[in-house]
Specification:
The complex is a heterodimer of chains A (about 160) and B (about 550).
Chain A: E1 15-16, H1 20-46, H2 53-75, E2 77-80, E3 84-89, E4 94-100, E5 106-110, H3 113-117, E6 120-126, E7 134-140, H4 141-158
Antiparallel strand pairs in A: 1-2, 2-3, 3-4, 5-6, 6-7
Chain B: E1 20-21, H1 26-51, H2 63-86, E2 89-92, E3 96-101, E4 107-112, E5 116-123, H3 125-129, E6 132-139, E7 147-153, H4 154-168, H5 182-188, H6 191-216, E8 231-235, H7 238-246, H8 249-267, H9 273-294, E9 298-302, E10 305-310, E11 315-321, E12 325-332, E13 341-348, E14 362-368, H10 369-379, H11 386-393, E15 402-403, E16 420-423, E17 427-432, E18 437-443, E19 450-454, H12 456-461, E20 463-468, E21 478-483, H13 484-506, H14 512-516, H15 522-526, H16 532-535
Antiparallel strand pairs in B: 1-2, 2-3, 3-4, 5-6, 5-11, 6-7, 8-9, 9-10, 10-11, 12-13, 12-18, 13-14, 15-16, 16-17, 17-18, 19-20, 20-21
Classes of the chains: A alpha+beta (about 160), B alpha+beta (about 550).
Keywords (chain A): Membrane, Transmembrane, Transmembrane helix
Protein name (chain A): PH domain-containing protein
């Protein structure tokens, strides 16, 4: 089974994450941008109309990131292979990580308030190397729980010493 | 010295191994000297204030009080030290090493032998003057799980270290069958004698070591130094430390910057001071730090481990168990090309060192080619491979290595001919660098996980990087800027190889202790001294 950065090889069971993650992240983005938008708009309205450029820039940044989130979320996929889990993400900076089950130290499940609102959670995989872990975000809660349990079980079955 | 040294040899008392006290001078050395001095100073100033103004004789009429107060303080300090010493005990039990300490807040710390990652013997200056050492035990599970047995007489520290290493290596019944002559020698080494050994050991040892190494094979052990079966591999002479410290960009910078700084000060152009001053200080500090850690550097092989001793003011002994080495980097800064000196750094599982102290992570910070190759040979056949020499020497494309495409020249204008990887039956070898050179080695069985990544520029050029993640350490194995198809192939092939190597090593699932057990080590010693070309003779194959 050959995994690659881009092509969707038919024999690899790539799975996509929930598109609702994009909604969750977009709401988070809006919450982060709203104060800036309001502050710059108030500034422009009260001080000088030449300052309307500021909220314009903020809004443009917001729209760009809004669009980017959709691209990023649709770029995340993962595959559970017999020996390892493979996670791909990123558009501009594309990254594929392949973590053998035998190297798994433990797997975490986490869910922020926004994610929880959409019924989503992420599973984080830890190995003995801090750089080499991986994270699968935007899983439906039951799917995340099931993935974490599968990972733990396979990790125990295939555990290898350092 | 009154410390009974027989608990190490006494295996009969399995359940109740007696507790042993650390050396009585310990509280004094652990800051006691400072506290005593500070109290003394404070008292003297107080007495001056209290009594000095009454007349010519500062102790007029108050001699008794002063003597009394002084005596009380001395008694208190001594009593406090004594209680602290009474309460600091350790023991090497059947399966664990234990340390109890603390007066009010009693602590009991325990490390299982199979959790021990490394055992170091350190000798800070003060302790060294008193002929004492401390034994530092690093265990899996972070900083809090370490134990420091301080201070013990030097010979005793060496025995404890060896016993711990044997226990950690799981050599069963021999664990505590230490040197039976341990206690008499311990008793015989008075303060004067050990002090002398500590002071002279540094300079006196290096010349004597080849003979000493031969003698150790016969079961003898020098007062401080070789253990049974230890084979000397490398010594860094002081001249080379000087030369290597000077042959660096840091030193070149200092040579230019210090006169500039002086000129600036003399001519009064103080504007350069705020930025050049700190730079000079930083560079100077780094060079001094390197110098002091590289001094008296010695490397010895002892069966399943490599021992490093080094330090100018503080002698540090580090033991690197071979089976815990995760990745190796052999590198050569550009300025060392002419003299052909190399540095070997390793990632060791479970040992987290200060990342700023580069020298401390090195198996050898500056070694000749022969020494570097001898260290690789001592590490075993898995590490000493002909591909490593090829990676060190080849200026351009060479038979064993898969290179990177010519259009990577944009990103690596100088080193694109050298960047590449080779696959052997045991490990993946990655090389790079143009003037300064670098070869990285990761055994297939030690790969944690694999990453394939690509930035926007690399995407335009059709290139990708493959990273082989290792545990925390100075070595960060990577093969950069391979053609995308080649990188994809490497990642997939390496995943299969790593899985195969893991399966072979663990010999079946659900067997974690076996997986961490030491690898067969006879090869490590038998191949010692031979060139890696002969030692690594297993059929190396290349993709």
């Amino acid at each position: 089974m050959t995994v690659a950065l881009y092509d969707d090889n038919a024999e690899v069971p790539w799975r996509r994450i929930s598109p609702r993650l994009a909604s969750a992240r977009r709401i988070g983005l809006l919450l982060a941008y709203l104060p800036f938008l309001l502050a710059t708009a108030v500034l422009a309205a009260t001080v000088s109309r030449w300052l309307w450029g500021l909220p314009g820039v903020v809004a443009a940044l917001f729209l760009w990131q809004f669009w980017l989130i959709g691209r990023q979320v649709s770029a995340i996929s993962y595959a559970e292979l017999p020996e390892e889990i493979v996670i791909r993400r990123g558009r501009l900076f594309r990254r594929l990580v392949s973590i053998p089950y035998g190297r798994l130290q433990y797997a975490d499940m986490g869910s922020g308030p926004l994610e929880r609102h959409f019924g989503l959670a992420s599973v984080t995989i830890h190995t003995a190397s801090p750089a080499s872990g991986g994270r699968v975000p935007g899983l439906e809660l039951p799917a995340a729980e099931a993935l974490r349990e599968r990972l733990t079980a396979r990790g125990e079955a295939q555990r290898a010493g350092l | 010295m009154t410390i009974p040294a027989d608990d190490i040899t006494d295996r009969g008392a399995q359940a109740d191994v007696p507790w042993t006290h650390v050396h009585p001078l310990t509280p004094l050395l652990r800051g006691g000297v400072m506290i005593t001095g500070a109290i003394g100073y404070w008292l003297s100033t107080q007495f001056d204030n209290l009594f000095g103004r009454h007349g010519d004789d500062p102790t007029q009429d108050h001699l008794l009080q002063i003597a009394g107060v002084g005596l009380v303080i001395v008694v208190l300090v001594v009593a406090g030290s004594w209680v602290s010493w009474r309460n600091t005990t350790y023991r090497l039990g059947p399966t664990t090493v234990d340390l109890r300490h603390g007066i009010v807040n009693r602590q009991h710390r325990q490390v299982r032998y199979d959790r021990i990652q490394a055992v170091d013997v350190t000798r800070p200056l003060l302790a060294r003057l008193a002929g004492l050492s401390s034994v530092r035990i690093e265990a899996a599970g972070g900083r809090d799980s370490n134990i420091e047995l301080s201070y013990l007489p030097q010979t005793r520290a060496a025995e404890v270290r060896q016993a711990l290493l044997r226990a950690a290596a799981g050599q069963g019944s021999e664990v505590f069958a230490g040197d039976p002559s341990g206690s008499p020698r311990d008793a015989g080494s008075g303060l004067g004698g050990t002090e002398k050994a500590g002071g002279e050991g540094v300079a006196g040892e290096a010349p004597a070591s080849p003979a000493g190494g031969a003698a150790t094979a016969g079961g003898e052990r020098t007062a401080y130094g070789h253990d049974v079966g230890e084979v000397p591999i490398a010594r860094i002479p002081a001249m080379r430390v000087w030369a290597a410290t000077l042959l660096s960009f840091n030193a070149a910078f200092l040579v230019l910057a210090i006169p500039a700084l002086v000129v600036a000060l003399v001519t009064g152009s103080l504007l350069v001071l705020p930025w050049l001053g700190p730079m000079v200080l930083g560079a100077l500090g780094q060079q001094v730090g390197r110098f002091s850690t590289w001094m008296n550097f010695r490397v010895d092989a002892s069966g399943s481990a490599i021992r490093i001793r080094h330090g100018l003011t503080e002698l540090r002994t580090t033991t690197v168990p071979l089976h815990r080495i995760q990745a190796v980097e052999i590198s050569q800064p550009a300025l060392w090309r002419a003299v052909d000196w190399w540095r070997i750094e390793v990632n060791v599982a479970g040992v987290h060192r200060d990342p700023d102290e580069k020298g401390d992570n090195a198996l050898i910070p500056v070694g000749t080619r022969a020494e570097a190759l001898a260290i690789l040979a001592a590490m075993g056949p898995r590490w000493s491979l002909p591909e490593v020499i090829e990676g060190m020497d080849a200026p351009g494309p060479s038979p064993s290595f898969v290179g990177i495409p010519p259009n990577a020249r944009v990103l690596d204008p100088l080193s694109w001919k050298r960047i590449g990887y080779a696959v052997t039956s045991a490990a993946l070898v990655s090389r790079g660098g143009w003037l300064g050179r670098r070869v990285q080695l990761v055994p297939h069985a030690r790969v944690q996980s694999l990453t394939l990544d690509q930035g926007p520029l690399e995407r335009r050029l059709g290139l990708a990087n493959v990273k082989l993640h290792s545990t925390t350490g100075p070595v960060d194995p990577v093969v950069r800027h391979l053609a995308l198809a080649e990188a994809t192939r490497l990642l997939n092939a390496e995943a299969v190889r790593a899985a195969g190597a893991r399966a072979v090593e663990s010999g079946g699932a659900g067997n974690p202790p076996a997986a961490t057990a030491p690898l067969p080590c006879p090869g490590a010693l038998s191949s010692l001294g031979k060139g890696p070309a002969q030692a690594g003779s297993q059929g190396a194959w290349t993709e």
